[in-house]
Fold:
Amino acid sequence: MEREILSCAFGEESYFERIKDSKDPARIRLKIIEYLTTCKSVSETARKFRVSRQIVRKWEKRYREEGMEGLKDRPKIPKKRRTILTDEITELILKLRHEYGYGPRRIKRALQELYNIKISENPIYNVLKSNKIQNGNHL
Structure:
């Protein structure tokens, strides 16, 4: 009987259709967890709510580890911040490029070995590009 009540919770809507306009997505996810607890089958729960088994496992794990807080939406911001270069580092990049003609890979290595500055190649490339320097030629 309880299974029937929970299975009717979504009707013909999939999880994604239902959650898209929801003001309380954690409650919808809790229904998935409640159904999983009742039926004990990830596959059956996934079929019932029209989601993948991975989604069911993800919400079950978050609920087990964090409770209701784990079922709430998380910010969609990147975990890593972009590298913000100081004027000094930008000057060093341009200096290494002009004096030695180094490309991003060698500049990265030189910055690390000579100045103990750890930086990836992308920001170095972006500095060269923004200063219209590429392959020894001006763009």
In short: The helical segments are 2-7, 15-20, 25-39, 42-49, 53-66, 87-100, 104-115, 121-130. The CA atoms of residues 101 and 132 lie 14 Å apart.
